[in-house]
Amino acid sequence: CYPSPAHDIPHDDDSFDMILCTDVMEHIHPDYVDKTLDEIARVGKQYFYFSIACCKESVVYREFGVPLNLTIMPPMWWMDKLRKRGITPIYHGVADDETYIFVYGEKSCQK
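and the corresponding structure tokens:
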């Protein structure tokens, strides 16, 4: 295990056949979203799965008064971010109320 920030992953290019990233990206500070996605795309070899909340949290925020979802953007904003990094959606879904996006993607030959 290598503890490190998500925007500086200590692994070589194409280290992992599949990247599973669930309920992570919405917690990344906006200043680090692009770098974090760059790193995920860099270390991922072929397949990617993302589950990203696109809304403000409710229960935890009310209980603790601390915002946890730092990057709240619409589903298509996230799709564009992934495509710009050469991750082509094979399947994607958006919750009816647009509070979540689910993306299963594959790395394109060219970025």
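(Above: one complete record from the training split.) The beta strands are 16-22, 44-53, 87-94, 100-107.
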